[in-house]
Amino acid sequence: MKIWVNQSPVGTTRLSRIALGICIAITSTLLAFAPAIAEWRPTQPITFLVMAGKGGGADKAVRLMAESMHSQGLVSVPIEPVNMPGGSGADAMVELQRRAGDDHVIMFTLNSFYTTPMRRPELGLDINNYTPIARMAEDTFVLWVNAERADINSIGDFVTAARAKGSGWVMAGTGEGSEDNLLTDFMNVTFGLNMTYKPVKSGGLGAKDLVSNAVDSTVNNPSEQHEYFEQGLTKPVVMFTPQRMDNFITSPTLRETGVDFHYYMQRSVVGAPNMSAEAQSFYQNLFQTYFNGSEWQQYRKDNGLRGDFLTGVELREYWNKEVEKHERWQMAIEMLKP
Predict the structure, then answer these.
(1) Which of 42, 130, 258, 295 has its CA 20 to 30 A from that of 270?
(2) What is the DSSP string of 66-110?
(3) Are residues 132 and 269 in the same domain?
């Protein structure tokens, strides 16, 4: 005969407790290992697209990160830089869009990430479709001339020389309709100049053109002119920054000359549209770890980079604010053109 206590037979109570204990133990074990099971890792080489050619600021940064992350053991597979400068970065953006859902491709951006979709609406590029991974820095701009130009030692000297040469004065920059192009247009309308803009595939090529006197000036980032500046081949005229840069402490900002203007370029990492949440988390952690490391912090210092680390929603909000700024800026330039 079975005796029931609290709706359970006495003979089965002990077995029930044992079974319950086993279930709890198994569940606890599975929960403990769940993050490890779910954690994503790359299983093949990672393609790192660059929206510009070799030798420019973006290319230098990508190659440093790719080599260092692998050599430091931060990632177990090679990271392979692929330069796609065509269409002022349009080719790179289209390629990343084509590889939607691919967890093994990322891209390093310039401000052409904003301006190219604005200039080429037929491409159907929406920056909000890309996966926000990491803003690694904001890069700075400097107006450069060849060191042989003894007649140019200030923005006033530059304006006098450029105005005298008219459209024969050539300013080199990365891409067409890009940040360098916009800066050239800005200087033309602000100072009444008629400089001709020469688009090249990378800031590195523009810097070489300046050294060889193939062009008259550039608005290179510091990393692109660093080598030639150290050799005494080029010299800065003004900084497009709010305060003077430690690297060029004797050179004034444009603001100091009476024109209250500064401009930065993002150095951000984005993933393909529809990247998995697990892969996005992996890349966010990877780049934040590298951002916090001494190597990247030293690189930022040496090359005049600024800006905090941004990712996720904050990075996407930053993009949209920058798009609005560029739209207003371009509209103002168009209105001021003669």
Answers:
(1) 295
(2) HHHHHHTTS-SS-EEEEE--TTTTHHHHHHHHHTTT-TTEEEE--
(3) yes
Whether 276 and 299 map to the same domain: the answer is yes
Domain assignment present for residue 299? The answer is yes
Helix, strand, coil tally for the chain in percent (to 5) = 50, 20, 30
Same domain? For 303 and 238 the reply is: no
State whether 196 and 273 are in the same domain.
Answer: no
How many domains in the chain? 2
Tokens of 216: 């008259």
The pTM of the full predicted model, rounded to 2 decimals, is 0.84
Residue-range definition of the domain harbouring residue 160: 142-262
Residue with tokens 């996407």: 316
Segments in the chain below pLDDT 50: 1-37
What digits encode the pLDDT tens for the residues 137-178? 999 999 999 999 999 999 999 999 999 999 999 999 998 988
Tell me which of 246, 262, 278 is where a domain ends: 262
Contact 65, 79 (CB under 8 A): yes
Burial degree of 149 (CB within 10 A; 0-12, 13-18, 19+): middle
Q: Do 181 and 199 contact (CB within 8 A), yes or no?
A: yes
